[in-house]
Every structure is written in C-alpha cells, then in structure tokens.
Amino acid sequence: MDNIQALNIQDIPKELSVMLQMLSHQQHSLDEHKLEKIDWDLFVELALHHRLYPVLYPELKKVSNYVPANVLQLIHGYYKRNTFQMLHLSAEMEQVNELFIIKGIPLLFLKGPVLSHSLYGNLSLRTSSDLDFLIPIERLQESEQLLVELGYEKDDYIETVLEDWRWRHHHVTYFHPQKGIKLEIHWRLHPGPGKEPTFQELWNRKQTSKYSHHPIYMLGYEDLFIFLVLHGARHGWSRLRWLVDIHQILQKDIDWKVLHHLMKRYKAKPICGQAVILSSQFFQTNVPKELKPLINQPSTRLAQEAIFYLERMVNLHTDPVPEEVSNYHKRHLFSLMSNQQKILFILSFLYPYPEDAETLPLPKPLHFLYFPLRPFLWAWRKTRKHAIS
Fold this sequence. Notes:
Layout: H1 14-23, H2 32-36, H3 40-49, H4 53-62, H5 69-102, E1 108-109, H6 112-120, E2 130-134, H7 140-149, E3 153-155, H8 165-168, E4 171-176, E5 181-186, H9 199-204, E6 207-208, E7 217-218, H10 221-234, H11 241-249, H12 256-265, H13 269-283, H14 297-310, H15 323-336, H16 339-347, H17 354-359, H18 370-388
Helix pairs in contact: 4-5, 10-11, 10-12, 10-13, 11-13, 13-14, 14-15
C-alpha cells in the first residue's frame, strides 16, 4: 500500500471489516475477544450481499475455533450450492459456444465460469448468476433466433425510438424456463453514451480460456481489466466481489503498454486509479509499479466516494432504490466522467427518448420530428407531473 493514502472507512460495519481482514489474510490480527462482538447474522448477510462467501469459506475454516458452528455450516452450504451453479452454467456455456461456432458467429464470454477459472483457477471461488457474452451487433438477430431454438425466452423490456437501443442499451436478456438459466447477449460492453473498442478490436486482442478442451474465447487481460473496472465503478463497487476480481487480475501477466494505451484512449485512468486504491485498501493488493502513476488525488477522491456504498448495503438493482442513495449515485456517476464524457452525456439528453413517442405518438416516417419537439415534450411531461403532484 506504499504511496496510497489510507481511506476513511471508520463507518463501515465492523462485521465487514473483520471479513476484509480474513480475505486479506490478516487473521493474525483477529482474536477471540474481537470476534465475540460480531453480529454473526449480519456477517452472513454481508457475505451474501457482497457475493464473498465462496472466497470467504476457506478463510473462515482457518479461524473455525472462533466462528459459530452454524455460521460455518451455513456459509459452507452456500459455497456448495455455488459450485453446483457454476458447473450448471459451465455445461450451458459449452453448449451455446459450440452452437455459435457451428453457425460461424464469433462470441466473447465476459464473465461466468471462464472468468472464475481464469482469475481464481477454481470455478467454486466466484459467484455468477448468468452467462454474458459479446457478439457483433450485426449478428444480433441471428443470435437471438438461435437462443429461441434452444428454448430461451426473451425478456423484451427495451423500449426504443429512432434505434436509440443500439447505444443507450448494451445487452438483452434471455431466460430458459426449464434450465433456470439467464443469459445476456451484449453488443456493447457498457450502456452508452460512450466510446468503446469495436468488436473486431476486442476479438483481435482476445485470449482463449483454458477451462475447456474446445476453444472458448474471452477478453484479453488488458480489455478485461478495463471492463471489470468500469463495470464495478458504474455500480459504485457496491458488491465487493467486483473488487476481488481486480485484486486477482492485477496478479496476471498484463501488457502494461497496451493497458496504458487503452486507459488513455477511453479516458479511464481516474477510474482505474480508484479501483487500484480500493483493492489495495481492502485486500492489500500489491500495486504494480506500472500503475503507481494512477494513484493521485482525483483517484483517491473517487475511491473515498465509493465508501458510501460500503457503509450501507446498497442494492442498485432492486426498486425502489432509496432516494438518498439514488441521488448520491447519480452525482457519483457524473464525477467518474471525464470532461469530454460529461459533455457527451449532457448532449445525449437532446436525443429523443421512448417517452417522447408515448407523449406524442407519430407515424414512424415522422419520428425525426422528435428532435426539435423534444424540449417541448419534456417540459410538457414535467408540467403534468408537477400538476399531478
């Protein structure tokens, strides 16, 4: 942690602090007196919320004399259940991969079993609730048809106008009712607006997973690092599993020249610095000398802002999100952007939204009129909302 200023984490739950000490292999600083004060129900709740129980279980066994037997048994149960889940996903991943290869559709798996195997060397040590893979956008319709033939059903939640789905959204979800598997097809790595590498660029830098005898492709470590950083930051690092991923990938053989080029090109240095600082703070990550320049005041400020999410169990995917959390999250996301990204984000509000078409339905050939009409339709909705309130 040299050259890294310690963050103020005094308000995070003591149960989470103990958990982090275990995961950073600092069990020697734990004693029976300290563990007696732990709310073990909250400890388990936090382990589940942060999806840390797979990596936590081996560490708990090392101090099993101080851990209630029912807690150890409960975490072990979740650990075993996750192992079966990952094996289930692995079988489906291989089937989907083989089918797409036969059809000549290139795909890059983003997370799931290949990520667990690549970063942890063990399927059991990382959770995953679904399969995510990236394809060229021009092969999307063909890919969706293949999944329907496999028995998947589309969760068609995207409303769109003037094809804004192509950049405002980044994936569509499918669910297999018999297998109980959720699958996400990505055509972008992240929701827009924002500059991203093309699929071909990512494909050229891909790596082959060693998990299977058949070729299964995933992002190269440099693209994977930036993808994991931007994904975690977009969610406020509200689940510490994402930071464990950063800790693990920083121990891999990364081409630092390529990584610095990508960070500069996509304005990602402050966010990567935030991730490095947080990983070092919580998991004693040895920061490579090539990333030391990222440790500066702006990145430290962003890292401190992320502590807000760890002081409370924030779940950004479950509505309603508390207003305090929602407002803070909007401000934090804006602070993560570079000046150029902020301008692009503000300009994106001038592009018509599906709500504009709902407010004033027009024939499709006239949808271009939503551009000049958007300010008036927005003001009309705000006026009506205020009047109803």
